[in-house]
Specification:
single chain, alpha+beta, eight-stranded antiparallel sheet, 3 helices, about 35% helix, about 35% strand
């Protein structure tokens, strides 16, 4: 998968996280995994279909999810409850929505699937041997945010 299809998720993540979390995100180095996999404790799984299709996982620790949800809800999250889960799912929707807009502008019309919150480490997602590009985003005191993008161009 070319960078033209990966970068919209990085750009959207940085823009949305800056907006909702009030921090200046810092992008780390891209790595490639042979398949979709995350070791994070709190994950937002969403998909896209269209000219490119596949899965995206936004992962973070539970502590980072609590901190981001606290910023989004404008109140301290003590226990990761339904309101916090909804906030984190909304975060995934906002990022993927902005990324699909950027993909459309680049000539890759796509639609997104609703986000699914998956809690627990060592989550594997079957992507039919499509590699996953992993981009870490540092969020200062809030912690780390990880983007896993596994896409392939659709051949019709």
């Amino acid at each position: 998968m070319n960078a033209e299809c990966i970068n919209p998720f990085v750009v959207a993540s940085i823009n949305v996280l800056r907006s909702v979390a009030g921090v200046e995100p810092s992008r780390g180095s891209v790595t490639v995994r042979p398949r979709m996999f995350t070791t994070q404790q709190c994950n937002i799984l969403t998909g896209i279909t269209g000219k490119v299709e596949g899965q995206i996982i936004y992962g973070m620790s539970l502590a980072t999810a609590d901190r981001i949800a606290s910023q989004m809800l404008a109140q301290t999250v003590v226990t990761f409850d339904q309101a916090a889960a909804n906030a984190i799912c909304d975060l995934g929707s906002r990022i993927t929505g902005q990324a699909t807009d950027l993909l459309d502008e680049a000539g890759y019309p796509t639609e997104m699937t609703p986000p699914t919150l998956v809690r627990g480490a060592n989550v594997n997602v079957s992507t039919l041997d499509v590699p996953a590009f992993v981009i870490p985003i540092a969020l200062g005191d809030l912690g780390e945010f990880e983007i896993n993008v596994s896409l392939q161009e659709r051949h019709t």
